Amino acid sequence: MCSRPRRVSPEIITKVNAELVRILSLPDIKAKLSTQGADPLTNTPQDTAKWLVAENARYAKLIKDTGFKLQ
Fold first, then answer.
1. Is residue 37 part of a domain?
2. What are phi and psi of 3, to 5 degrees?
3. Model's pTM, two decimal places?
4. What rounded mean pLDDT belongs to the chain?
5. 58 occurs within a structural domain
6. Could you list the residue range(s) of the whole structural domain that residue 14 is in?
7. Under 8 Å between Cβ of 42 and 21
C-alpha cells in the first residue's frame, strides 16, 4: 500500500482531511460543485491510499495488456 507523503505527519494529514471534508460538506460548495457535474468523495486518508493503489494497479494492467507506448 502506498504510504503517507514523506515528511508529513499523520496529524497534519488528519487535520487537512477533516478540513476538506468540512468544506466539501458546506451547502454552497456542494451546490457549486453539483452545477459542474462533480460529486466529491470524502474518504479517509487510508481509503484514499487504498484507492490510489488499486487505480495504479488497474492502469498498469491496462497499459501492459494493450501494449500502450508514449510517442
1. yes
2. -95, 175
3. 0.66
4. 90
5. yes
6. 10-66
7. yes
SS (H, E, C) the chain: CCCCCCCCCHHHHHHHHHHHHHHHCCHHHHHHHHHCCCCCCCCCHHHHHHHHHHHHHHHHHHHHHHCCCCC
Distance of CA 24 to the CA centre of its chain: 14
**Among candidates 51, 31, 28, which has minimal Cα distance to 39?**
31
HSE-CB at 54 with a 13 A cutoff on CA atoms is 6
Please report whether residue 17 resides in a domain.
yes
Number of domains in the chain: 1
CA distance linking residue 51 with residue 53, whole number of Å: 5
Predicted local distance difference test score (pLDDT) of residue 17: 94
